[in-house]
Specification:
The chain has 339 residues and is an alpha/beta fold. It has two domains: 2-122 and 247-300, 3-Layer(aba) Sandwich (D-Maltodextrin-Binding Protein, domain 2), CATH 3.40.190; 124-246 and 308-337, Periplasmic binding protein-like II (D-Maltodextrin-Binding Protein, domain 2, 3-Layer(aba) Sandwich), CATH 3.40.190.10. It is built from twelve helices and twelve strands. Strands 1, 2, 3, 6, 7, 8, 9, 10, 11 and 12 form a ten-stranded mixed β-sheet that branches. A two-stranded antiparallel sheet has the order 4-5. The protein starts with a helix and ends with a helix.
């Protein structure tokens, strides 16, 4: 009897493991394997990750239903769209234990005031990646993409993310974010159509191709450019002087999630500073969790892809959700561009 009681005491004293699963739908090559391994070991929850390459791809898949996903990671510009479509659960991250670690500047964001739906995943900038061994000119300009020099023609990739590319093009022709001015948008349309013959591709997941020299320039995200530079020291990242967006991707639970408790456990888990740092160390972007800096690599504190030059900070703007009338015009231009 004594042995039985001791055995029971040991069981009760050991960590409680959930015997569940979690299905995450996220951008490709964007989730730290080390962090997932840690989460599975600490919780007993088995994680499956499925990739997508753009916000529009994710939105279409979720709206179609029957997807089987529990968590999605939309950009801030798409969070209101997901909420408006009834696709996200009001999971109240602001009531979770680790919410206390969220950096105050990322709590009352325009796309999710007070954080009733989402938790920060990563944040960064959209700029221009250039192989400086091929082109030695100014890389802090969107002209690298929209009016490229001879050295770069036929060697350019543009990410398949409408808002990022349209935003850069709108500022390049002198417009403002979310403009519905048809004269400005005609200039944008003409600029994009004239530039496209000089592009090689409009693809996602180009880190290896930039590193190998298969692509020489492109519209890109700063963390992806950082990872390419780690493999090829000639890779540089430019901040267009005419304007570049600052964005944040956010984890949220889907309204039709089957594994809600497991999903809430995960959202709370990634708000822990050490776990948030694992995400940043892998993807090479900043995150919205205070105290995570102490766990991140030293090179992220001085990286040119993370630290915006003082003279270019004024060109940054926070990406926001545009009105439907503007988005409809952008979609028409984008659809034509992809033909």
């Amino acid at each position: 009897m004594k042995k039985t009681m001791v055995a029971m005491a040991l069981v009760l004293a050991s960590p409680a493991y959930a015997d569940g699963e979690l299905n995450i739908y996220n951008w490709g090559n964007y989730t730290s394997p080390e962090m997932i391994t840690k989460f599975e070991a600490e919780t007993g929850i088995k994680v499956t990750i499925t990739d997508y390459d753009s916000n529009d791809t994710a939105l279409a898949k979720i709206k179609a239903g029957g997807h089987g996903f529990d968590i999605v990671v939309p950009s801030g510009t798409y969070v209101p769209i997901f909420v408006g479509e009834g696709l996200l659960m009001e999971s109240k991250p602001n009531e979770m234990e680790n919410f206390k670690h969220m950096d105050p500047q990322w709590v009352d964001v325009e796309f999710d005031k007070g954080r009733n739906y989402t938790v920060p995943w990563q944040w960064g900038t959209v700029g221009v990646t250039v192989n400086t061994a091929i082109y030695g000119g100014d890389i802090n300009t969107a002209a690298v993409i929209f009016d490229p020099p001879e050295e770069l023609k036929g060697k350019i990739n543009v990410v398949p993310e409408m808002n990022d590319v349209m935003g850069m093009a709108i500022h390049y022709v002198g417009g403002e974010q979310c403009t519905a001015d048809k004269e400005v948008l005609m200039k944008v349309r003409d600029t994009l159509q004239a530039a496209k013959p000089n592009w090689l591709s409009m693809d996602y997941g180009m880190i290896e191709k930039f590193a190998a020299g298969d692509v020489a320039a492109g519209v890109n995200w700063n963390g992806a450019s950082f990872r390419a530079r780690e493999k090829n020291a000639d890779i540089g990242f430019g901040y267009p002087q005419t304007g570049f967006p600052v964005w944040m991707d956010n984890a949220a639970i889907l309204s039709d999630a089957k594994n809600v408790d497991e999903a809430k456990t995960f959202l709370n888990f990634i708000m822990d500073p050490e776990n948030a740092a694992m995400l940043s160390s892998f993807a090479r972007y900043a995150n919205g969790i205070a105290g995570s800096e102490a766990f991140m690599p030293e090179d992220m504190k001085t990286s040119p892809e993370i630290v915006v030059p003082a003279e270019l900070k004024a060109a940054a703007y926070v990406a926001k959700t545009c009105p439907p009338e503007a988005t409809k015009l952008y979609t028409a231009i984008w659809t034509e561009l992809q033909k």
